[in-house]
Amino acid sequence: MPVCRHEIVLTGGESQYSALHDFIASFTASKGYSAQFSDDLQLALKEAFINAVKHGNRESDELSVSCSLCAEGNMLLATITDCGEGFNPEELPDPLDPHNRFQLSGRGVYIIKSIAESINVERSRDGSTLVLRYIPY
Question: What's the pTM value of the predicted model, to 2 decimals?
Answer without folding.
Answer: 0.88
